[in-house]
Structures are given as structure tokens and as C-alpha cells.
Amino acid sequence: MKIIIDTTENVAKRAAQLYVDLLSRNPQAVLGGATGSTPIPLYKELVKLNKEGVISFKDAKSFNLDEYVGLEGTHDQSYRYFMNDNLFNHIDIKMENTHVPSGIDISEPEKYDSEIEAAGGIDMQLLGIGVDGHIGFNEPGTPWDSLTHVVELEQNTREVNARFFNSIDEVPTHAVTMGIKTVMNARSIILIATGSSKAEIVKKFIEGPVTTEVPASILQLHPFVTVFLDHEAAALLEKKA
Ligand code: F6R
């Protein structure tokens, strides 16, 4: 794992540079997207670079990590809505090339893996991390060989995400998420963690044992992972190189 520690602002800029590098090498790259608070500064940077003509997404494809079960893409808390609102509506990607798992038709979630494979596989998967170590919605205990599947959300994850809803009762109880294997199949991975609330889990997933109790710890075994941390998220790391 390559670990990069910088200011919160520079983390977004330096992560955006990886998109510039990838898309200039391969304009048809397949990008893996994430939602949540963490990627917002990165998406702002990508929108800016796209408007400035530094980067183009016109031949790129994207596959998002996850979606809440029961929310239509038009619901303002769905992850489809989030992606359109924060990124896709503001860049030159073709909407038909953007993919978010369906939270409505959940009959055969693993079909999403076949779609990713048919597109040639993910070149660069973006990840955030939950305070319990989840990636996507793969909560502690998720098997390493999991493909896209439906999960019941942990109470803690629902509480953390309740800030986006009127009340916790409105937070969906289930989500559909790429599995750990789906994520590990990506050719390269970027994980971003910012803020002091992530410091403990950052230390665990980077310096602790590889265990299903910390889903992100599996990334220690992937050959091309870049972890971007701000100083607050990196605060408890022993080795800050
Ligand atoms: C979002 C996702 C989640 C988040 C994680 C961190 O698509 O898959 O794993 O990355 O919950 O969320 P934030 O960035 O809001 O702290």
C-alpha cells in the first residue's frame, strides 16, 4: 500500500491527479465510484479539471459501489442521485455509461459483477472507509469471496448515515453493495480517509492484522492501492512514511 499524507485540500488535489493520469493514458477507463462525505472535495476537483479541459470523461465508464435498497434514483438520498448531483451532471461523462446498482430490482445482485466484467473490469476503484472498517457496505464479517450482494446495515452505520435523513427511521435497513471480491478485482484502488473520526480505523486497517473483522484490512493484500489521508486521519499511524 502506498500511503500519502497531506492536508485535506491537497488530498483531493493529489487524488484527482491519479484520474488525470489514468484518463490521459486510457480515455476509456472504467472508474469505480463511491459516495459519502469523503469524496465530495475530490469530485469538486474533478468537475473543475473537466471544465478547464484538463480531463475528459467522454469515453469513460463508471460503476458505483453501492445503493440503498428501496430508494429510487430520484430520491435525494439515493446514491444515484448523489452521483448525478455531485459529479455526473457536471462532467462530460455519458449518463448511459454510468452505473449504480439498482436498489429496486435486487433479484440478481451478482449480475452487476457480470456487467463490470463485460465492461473490461474496473481500472481504478475509489473507496471511503466506515468507522467500523467497512468498504462499500461490506460490514465486519463479510466473506472475502463476496460478490455484489444485499446486506442488512449495522445499527451504527444507520446512525452515522442518519445525518442525511430527517430521522433514523427513514434510513433504509438494507443496501446492495459490491462485495469484497468485486472491489479486490479492480486493477487499482484509491482509498481516501479524512478527519479525526477515522484515525482509529485507519491505524487498524493499515497496521493491524488482515481480518474479516476489519473489511478494509484486505487491501493490504492488493498490489496497487494508494491510501490518501489527511493529517487528522493519519494521526495514530506508527509509520507515517
Ligand atoms: C459509500 C460507501 C461507504 C463510505 C463510508 C464512509 O459509497 O461505500 O463505504 O465510503 O461509509 O463514508 P463517509 O465518506 O461519509 O465518511
Task: Provide the list of bound ligands, each named once.
Answer: fructose -6-phosphate
Coarse shape: globular
Helix content: 25-40%
* Category from helices, strands and their pairing: alpha/beta
Radius of gyration: 17 Å
Strand content: 15-25%
**Overall pLDDT:** 96
> Separation of termini?
11 Å
Give the key terms:
seven-stranded parallel sheet; binds fructose -6-phosphate; 241 residues; alpha/beta; three-stranded antiparallel sheet; single chain
Describe the 3D structure:
The protein has 241 residues and is an alpha/beta fold. 28% of the residues lie in helices and 17% in strands. The protein contains 7 helices and 10 strands. The protein has helices spanning 8-25, 40-51, 79-86, 111-118, 155-161, 180-184, 199-207; strands spanning 2-6, 30-33, 61-64, 66-68, 98-99, 124-127, 149-152, 174-177, 188-193, 225-230. Helix 7 links the parallel strand 9 (188-193) and strand 10. The structure holds fructose -6-phosphate. Residues 34-38, 65-66, 128-130, 134-137 line the site of fructose -6-phosphate.
